[in-house]
Amino acid sequence: RKEVEQDPGPFNVPEGATVAFNCTYSNSASQSFFWYRQDCRKEPKLLMSVYSSGNEDGRFTAQLNRASQYISLLIRDSKLSDSATYLCTSGTYKYIFGTGTRLKVLA
Amino acid sequence: EPEVTQTPSHQVTQMGQEVILRCVPISNHLYFYWYRQILGQKVEFLVSFYNNEISEKSEIFDDQFSVERPDGSNFTLKIRSTKLEDSAMYFCASSGQGSAGYTFGSGTRLTVV
Fold first, then answer.
1. What pLDDT score does A53 carry?
2. Alpha-carbon distance A32 to B47, whole Å?
3. Is the pLDDT of residue B99 over 80?
4. What is the phi-psi region of residue A91: left when phi exceeds 0, alpha when psi lies from -120 to 50, beta otherwise?
5. Which residue does chain B place closest to A95, by CA atoms?
6. B14 SS3 class
């Protein structure tokens, strides 16, 4: 089983839609979890941390489910500018990235 | 906003040559990392560095690779004898705490011909 698994997509959604991504991780000892956003040929940029209690930042909500070993990202009211690849990562001191989920928001 | 700086942005080298990729992490950060991303593939961990020594490395980080922090600001990745399959984007990252999210540099695109 891969350490971090994501559906590669692409997810094609209309502007204004709500979209959710899931990510599973295999290392139950992982202590930290994050979502990153990566635009084409650019570096990953930290989007948000993920906690069991949930974490909300504007239109973005992230959640961790330790029992099932998955993390999620919910994007509400999608904008064209949200089009990117979303990477989840887990680990302790060293983070393993998933392959990323491509999101295309369509006008 | 503080940033991680990488140079050069693009390097072309001949197979078998040595390359050094340079990074200036955020000044008060203590943890440093190198990752690579082959075109169209995922971001892969290479090595982590803390307190002037390697704390973890992946299977990719074999004897051809080495890292150094030669002074208080630079963090370098050296590939001794490049192979075609080393062609990738190399990202440096740093964090203030081991459990904190990283800040990545904009990357060095290495092309081995």
1. 85
2. 18
3. no
4. left
5. B45
6. coil
Residue A83 DSSP label: -
Q: Over 90: is that where the pLDDT of A44 sits? A: yes
Task: Supply the mean pLDDT for chain B.
Answer: 94
Match 């500018």 to its residue by tokens.
A81
Amino acid at A2: K
**Contact status of A29 with chain B (Cβ, < 8 Å):** no
Q: Indicate yes or no: CB of B104 within 8 angstroms of CB of A45.
A: yes
Region B12-22 average pLDDT: 98
> Is B8 within 8 Å of chain A by CB?
no
Which of A40, A47, A95, A102 to substitute to test the interface with B, most B CBs within 10 Å? A95
**Cβ A46 vs Cβ B101: under 8 Å:** yes
Candidates B38, B47, B37, B106; CA nearest to B76 is: B47
d(CA A59, CA A82): 11
